[in-house]
Structures are given as C-alpha cells and as structure tokens.
Write a structure and sequence with these properties.
Blueprint: H1 14-21, E1 37-39, E2 48-49, E3 79-92, E4 95-108, E5 113-121, E6 129-130, E7 153-161, E8 167-174, E9 182-189, E10 200-205, E11 210-219, E12 227-235, E13 256-261, E14 272-275, E15 282-290, E16 296-304, E17 314-322, E18 333-337, E19 343-344, E20 351-353, E21 360-363, E22 372-378, E23 388-394, E24 402-405, E25 416-423, E26 429-435, E27 446-454, E28 461-465, E29 470-471, E30 476-477, E31 481-482, E32 488-492, E33 495-503, E34 520-527
Parallel strand pairs: 1-28, 20-31
Antiparallel strand pairs: 2-34, 3-4, 4-5, 5-6, 7-8, 8-9, 9-10, 11-12, 12-13, 13-14, 15-16, 16-17, 17-18, 19-20, 21-22, 22-23, 23-24, 25-26, 26-27, 27-28, 27-29, 30-31, 32-33, 33-34
C-alpha cells in the first residue's frame, strides 16, 4: 500500500476534513464578538532549548535510523530525523522546580515517530536534561518483545505527575510494516523523570481493523493512588487501521476507552469502554481533568456523521463526568459545536496540520473549586473563514457550560490554532497558541507563539509573545506542515511554563514542499 492510497487525514486540509467529519453540515452560526485583548503585563523569558540538536539516535538518515529495526526502503513514508515535535509537559506538585516533558522524536510523514522521547528539569525549566533511561515505548528507546515495547514507531507522548512526585509517561506505539500491531504503554518514574521503569501495557491489539488512538493520562491531584488513562479505539469495517498508521483518523466507529490504577501504578485495571457514540460515529482527543471537589471531567471531540435522536450532527465539544474516581461515568454532554475549518498556508493554500479537532481542557484544582475550562479552534467569529481560539467555562464541575467567546485571541485576520489551556494555582488561566499574524505573504511561512492570560475567570484577556517567530514550512511535512496537534503548558513557582515546538530547518521552501533539511526543536519559556 502506498501513501496515495491512504484514507485522507482529517486535518490534511479543510475540504477533505469537512467531507469526512461534518458531512457538509450547515455552518451559518452567528459570530460572537471577541473579548478585548491588549499587550500583556506578563513577560516571557528567553526560550531555552529542551531537545537535542538533531536526532539522538546514531546513524539517523533520511531512510530512518537503524534503531527501528526496519530498513528505510521497507517502510512507507518519509522519515525526518532531527524533528522534535508535539510536546507535552507536567509539573511535580511536590516540587515545582521539577518539570517533566515528552515529545515525538524523528517524525514520519505517514504517522508516528521513531520514538517518544522524555526529558526533565530540576530548576523550574531554566535547564533541561534528557532522561538517562527512556521509556521503552519503541525499539529506538530499548523496546523489545520481552518488555512490551517491540514497535517501530511511537506517538502521542503525554505525561502527568502525582502529588507524591511519581511521573507517568503514556504513548501509543505501533508497527507500520506489520498490520494490526499497536499498544498503549505507560511507564513510571520515581526520580523526577531522570529514569523510567518497566512498561505497563494498557491495551494491545493485533486486529488489522482496530487502532487505538489519541491517548492522554492524568494523575489525580487529590490522591497519588489514582491515575487515569483514556483514548479512543477506532474500529474499521475493513483493513484500514494500523497498516496505514491511522493516527488521529476518522474511523467507522470510535468509542472512548479508559484504564486506571488505584495503587500508584503497581497494577492497572483492565481497560474498558466508558462511552460509545454508536456506529458511524466516534470520539477523539479525550482528556481527563479533576476539579477541586474531586469530580473527574473527560473532555473530547464527539463526532456524529449522521443525525441522531437529538438531531445532532458534525463535530462537538463534549464531556462526561465521574464522581467516584472513574468507577462509573455519565453519558456525554455537549458543550458546544466545534466549527473548525482547518488551517492552510495563507499565501499558497497548502495544508497546515494543527489541533483543529482536538479541544484542550483544564480545571481549577484549588480545594472547593469547580471551574472547568475548554479551548478549541472555531471559525464562527470570522464567518467560517479562519479558525480562531474559542473558550468556554463551567462553574459547576462540568454540569453546565457557557461559551465566553469564539475568538479570545486579539488578531482575527489570520488563522489561530493549536490551543493549550492551563490554570495556575491562584486561578489565573492561560491559553498557549500559534498564529500567522506576522507572515509577510511569501516564503517562509512566519509563525508566532502567544500566551493569552486571564485573571478574572476568562472575562478579559491579555497577551504575551513567547519566543521568536519561526518558519512553519521548514519542519516535518506529515499530511501538512506539522509541529504537533498539541503543545504543553503548565506552571512552576507561580509562573506559566510554555513548552512548545519550533520548526528551524532550511528556509525558502516552495509551497507544499518538504524542506531540504527539515528540523524542529522543543523549547521552554517562563511567563510571569
């Protein structure tokens, strides 16, 4: 099977995505005026490099490093050694100078990377080191049949830290050249991310019609005994899933699956289905947050490809709740529609792959607080012309919701995308995102990173620029220019800690092309 025969990725361009996901549903919705935003009073520190320069794997080249065990000529797709992207980060509640992050290492054009890689900081994000022993999630980081990590590729790195300082790394691993093989793997660190323990296999599938996808993990902030893992499980009517690395694909059926530990990672309960949207429908992008009263809120994109009994169709920002630490779950509640039109190069129209179908979630974890927040890409404020950053909040643990604005970002003349929301210990809200406001309508594709912050529960917003601009087109091309469909945002000692990717390969690339020397790196910056 060649790349041209693959099902179109839902973010490979607005036309293909809408045809697959929203099935031409009407988008005529009144725009909501944006909240005023001004230059922020918070300042951003100079970004520090988190990832290595180039690939950490010896012998890496354009055909893929030998560490994955498969000659480059045997694999579909193009490998981009030296691309670090799709970062995520978490703070240690027991020591806020300790931060743990993960990212994709050496991305492939057709799905996943040769490894998911992890690093840590012990000084509040001022300096970073790679973990001395990496989670063995793929062959490139020591995965074998014996330890459950015998996979060519890994993707979707996620990390969370328990109150006692135990860190949990989570990733999806799969084989591109063998059909049906994919697993969700967790590794625990008890030394702040410096080293990682053995794999726990939460779910493994060898059926070529099934692919586990878009995973996240959450350590319960109220008890170190509980950690929650969640993902969608795509079920296809024919052999479409793992052969083509159906990463973040629109499937025939995609229920939400869940696993938890109740003993601090010593064991994991059997994975189980917690929400089923029905045949032809799916969920994607599940993420669990925990309120200050202990309620679990699982937020996700709920996709109905046909009208259901409630006449709902298309993509929806949705949640379900648990009041007993994940033992039982409610059915889904829709927060709002998700009206993204996707992102393209504003000059040449080529696809830019973003987090357009993946909402971001955060909660206020202060004791007694029930605020939960969602941010996502939405085009309603621009008459469905360009994605902006939408924001909604709940003040009752997710039971009811108010959409505050479909564009909290201040510049609406260009696309804004890939939001990541986080709440500081004092209740301040931050939303990290990218946009093209500084692009000069030529080559390169100038991209900026911004942090919106609100200190009045989302009523008003200020903005701070994070780091220098970069050329989006100079990194990996994975069905579109790609630095990840999410990024990281946490805090350290009262400041926001932005954890983001920047492409930095060869510039002056023709539209739609692959950079002759693609590269990207992970950076961290304190904002406070």
């Amino acid at each position: 099977m060649n790349e041209n025969s693959e099902p179109r990725h839902p973010r490979a361009g607005a036309t293909g995505r809408r045809a697959l996901v929203v099935m031409a549903c009407a988008l005529a919705v009144a725009a909501v005026p944006a909240t005023a935003a001004v230059a922020g009073s918070l300042g951003a520190s100079a970004p520090v490099r988190v990832s290595s320069v180039g690939s950490p794997f010896s012998g890496a080249d354009a055909d893929g490093p030998p560490c994955n065990g498969v000659p480059g000529s045997a694999q579909v797709g193009t490998n981009f050694p030296g691309t670090e992207l799709e970062p995520f980060v978490a703070v240690n509640p027991a020591n806020e100078n300790n931060l743990v992050g993960g990212w994709q290492q050496d991305r492939w054009s057709d799905g996943g990377s040769n490894a998911t890689y992890f690093g840590y900081s012990t000084d509040g994000g001022d300096t970073w080191q790679p973990s001395a022993t990496q989670p063995a999630f793929s062959r490139c980081t020591g995965g074998t049949a014996a330890n459950g990590g015998d996979y060519e590729r890994s993707t979707d790195p996620w990390v969370s830290v328990s109150p006692d300082g135990s860190a949990y790394a989570f990733a999806l691993s799969f084989n591109q050249t063998l059909s049906g093989e994919n697993s969700l793997l967790v590794s625990k660190s008890t030394d702040g991310g410096a080293t990682w323990g053995p794999n726990a296999v939460l779910k493994r599938d060898t059926n070529p019609n099934v692919f586990n996808d878009k995973n996240s993990i959450t350590a319960d902030p109220t008890s170190s005994r509980y950690v929650y893992a969640v993902w969608d499980r795509l079920e296809f009517p024919n052999e479409r899933a793992s052969r083509v690395a159906g990463e973040h694909a629109v499937g025939y059926h995609g229920p939400t699956w869940f696993a938890r530990t109740t003993d601090g990672g010593a064991s994991w309960e059997a994975a189980r289905k917690i929400f089923d949207p029905g045949t032809i429908n799916q969920t994607i992008g599940s993420e669990i947050v925990v309120t200050g009263t202990g309620t679990l809120v699982n937020g996700f994109d709920l996709i109905y490809n046909f009208k259901n009994a409630k006449s709902v169709r298309g993509t929806n920002v949705a949640i379900q709740r648990s009041s007993d630490k994940g033992a039982t779950w409610s059915t889904a509640t829709i927060v709002d529609k998700l009206r993204s039109v996707g992102v393209t190069d504003p000059t040449f129209g080529g696809p830019v792959r973003t987090g357009d179908i993946i909402p971001s979630w955060a909660s206020d974890q202060r004791a007694g607080h029930q605020e939960v927040y969602a941010a996502w890409q939405d085009a309603r404020s621009t008459g469905n012309a360009r994605d902006q950053i939408a924001f909604a909040k709940s003040t009752d643990g997710g039971a009811t919701w108010t959409t505050m604005s479909y564009a909290i970002n201040p510049v609406h003349s260009t696309s804004a995308f890939t939001p990541r929301v986080h709440v500081l210990p004092d209740g301040s809200i931050g939303v990290l995102y990218y946009d093209f406001r500084n692009d000069d309508a030529g080559i390169p594709l100038v991209t900026s990173t911004w942090l919106l912050h609100s200190h009045d529960d989302g009523a008003t917003w200020q903005e701070t620029k994070v780091g220098a601009d970069f050329d989006m087109s100079s990194g990996a091309n994975a069905r579109g220019y790609f630095v990840g469909d999410y990024e990281g945002l946490t805090h350290s000692n009262g400041d926001f800690l932005a954890f983001f990717a920047k492409a930095n390969g060869a510039a002056a690339n023709p539209p739609g092309s692959v950079s002759p020397s693609p590269a990207s790196d992970i950076f961290a910056s304190r904002v406070g």
